[in-house]
Specification:
InterPro entries: MRP-S31
Distance between the termini: 98 Å
Number of strands: 0
Family: Belongs to the mitochondrion-specific ribosomal protein mS31 family.
Oligomer: single chain
GO molecular function: structural constituent of ribosome
Keywords: Mitochondrion, Ribonucleoprotein, Ribosomal protein, Transit peptide
Shape: elongated
GO cellular component, one term: mitochondrial small ribosomal subunit
Largest sheet: none
Helix content: 25-40%
Length: 150
């Protein structure tokens, strides 16, 4: 006896005999294959089946789930990084240096030496100037171009 008053035992330690349930051999088999099928989920009808949900309630449920999950805070570092990315405090992966910058081409900021001379001491000096300008992330492309045209 595991617990006092165990339903399977009568007196303490004496097990009561269990009743054995026998299936009725005259009962009809509901899993037989000779019965006609309903064909509710056949391949032809699957394209006709569609979800009947309202967009408003789907958005409301998603908003409620987001609010509920925010109350717990991040569980680990990955969830914390995801939250910071959604708030705009971290850049999304893969890292893109032009994230949230519209209308700025990378070739204008990094490859600004396309119109400079190719040989001679001026070319060497201008190459050093271009390398220095390309390392400065705080200058705009227009300001770098004005330095090169000077």
């Amino acid at each position: 006896m595991l617990y006092p008053g165990d339903y399977r035992s009568g007196m303490s330690g004496e097990a009561m005999p269990q009743a054995v349930v026998e299936p009725n051999p005259k009962a009809e088999n509901i899993f037989s294959t000779d019965l006609p099928r309903l064909d509710i989920f056949n391949a032809k009808n699957l394209s006709e089946l569609k979800e009947h949900s309202l967009d408003f309630w789907a958005k409301s449920d998603a908003n409620a789930a987001r609010i509920w999950n925010q109350s717990f805070g991040p569980k680990n570092g990955f969830e914390e990084m995801i939250e910071l990315t959604k708030k705009g405090k971290m850049w999304p992966y893969p890292i893109n240096n032009e994230y949230l910058l519209v209308g700025i081409d990378v070739w204008r900021t990094k490859l600004a030496d396309y119109h400079l001379p190719r040989t001679g001491p001026i070319a060497h000096f201008m190459e050093l100037v271009c390398v220095g300008l390309s390392k400065n992330p705080y200058m705009t492309a227009e300001k770098k171009k004005s330095h090169l045209e000077w």
